[in-house]
Amino acid sequence: MSKNIGELAEAKFITECLTRDLVISQPFGDNAKYDFIVDSKQGLKKVQIKSTLKLSLPYTDKRSGKVLKQKWHFNLASGSAQKIPYALSEVDIFALHIFETNSWLIIPNKEIFPRKTVSLIPDGNSRWNRYLNNWDALIL
User: Fold this and answer.
1) Each residue of 84-120: b (16+ CB within 10 Å) or e?
2) Residue 22 above 80 pLDDT?
3) Does domain 2-139 have CATH number 2.40.30.10?
4) CA angle, corner 106, sides to 103 and 112, nearest 5?
């Protein structure tokens, strides 16, 4: 199921790029750290796609004991055993798809690195909200 969800997110990304007249390419095989190359006005950008299906359950902060809100969570690390953040030379942009709202976070890796995760809280109180549907990061 997880592989199908990832492939569906990639198909949605291709559609979004084509509707914006962006030229995109996909590396052959699974050896690249990125999923697509987008040809933008600033040159070629390596894009890694990640997706999430639904909100997490409300959770309790271990330090404060407070019940915190639900969130969408993305794992942005590579490797199966030891999770390693994508290096700035490996990925230029993360395109994070939220299936529940059919929206995207388009975030430059330089804003994320060296983090391994990104979480978005639906009420808009998140450092990442400014990147919601930020297609200009790929166009400009």
Assistant:
1) ebbeeebbbbbbbbbeeeeebbbbbbeebeeeeebeb
2) yes
3) no
4) 130
